[in-house]
Every structure is written in structure tokens, then in C-alpha cells.
Amino acid sequence: MYIKLIGAGLILAGCGGCGIRIAMLHRREVAALHQLVQVLDGMVCELEYRLTPLPELCRLGSEYATGTVQRFFISLADAMDAQLSPDVRLCTATVLNQTKAMPLQTAMELENLGQTLGRYDLQGQINALRQCKQSCLNRLKGLEHQQTQRLRSYQTLGFCAGLALAILLF
What we know:
Shape: elongated
Helix content: over 70%
Number of strands: 0
Largest sheet: none
Order of helices and strands: HHHHHHH
Strand content: under 5%
């Protein structure tokens, strides 16, 4: 009897943990996109007023972020300084593959950013950074729409699924 109760408790905890993890990943995605928007704002300002070279621009941009977004921009600057590839797009892809725990939608935006970095003149580069920022803001709008209810639902569904499974197996 006790083994069944322990098993039911473990099933409930496991399913509830999955719901909590989904909510946590959602929050991490939103935070990373907010940081990327701040980095892009900083990069636009730097380009408009100082015409900063690209590796230095990435280092300065990393100061506006923390965690994986910051590590990405520092690694990208190092990769460009080391000239791992003459193409910024390939450097971006390499650094993204090496950066662990980068949220999916943030990684997609960074990949799109890497395709435009260093390809245009000053005004074209500024426009590309602003377009990437707008794309991030659109993603954020979708993710933050009714975020509290959605996250609560993820967690509740996880625990309810665990409870239902435990009842079925009990």
C-alpha cells in the first residue's frame, strides 16, 4: 500500500514539475528577449554616435544584458576578433551552437541578427538593428499576452495530469 502511495506521489511530483518547468522556460524566454531588445537599443545608439567597429559593438552591447545573452555577445565579439570566419553569419551560427541554454525564440532572433550584421552601410545597419528589435517586440507581445493566466494554467495542468495518472494507476 505504501509503495502505491509513494508511486502516486512521485507521479504527481513529476507531472507537476513538468508544468513548473514549462512555466520557468517561458519566463526565461521573455527575460532573454527583453535583454536582447536592450542590447539592440544600445547597439543602435553606439552606431549612431560613435561608429563603433563590430567586435567592440558586440562587447558594448553585452553590457546591457546578463546570462546567456551576455555570454553570446561576448563570445561573438571574441569569434570576430579571432576571425573564425570572414562572415559574421557563420560566426553567429558557431557561437549560437556553443552557447548553452539559449531560449529558442531568442536564438532565432540572434540568428536573424547575424545575417544582417556587418553587411550594410551605417544607415542600413541601423535599420536592420531596429527591424530586429521590432521583431523581438512582436514576439514579446505574443509571449506576454495573458502570461500570468497561461503560466498558471501550465502549472495547474501539470499537477492535474499527474493526479489523473496517479488515480488511474492506483
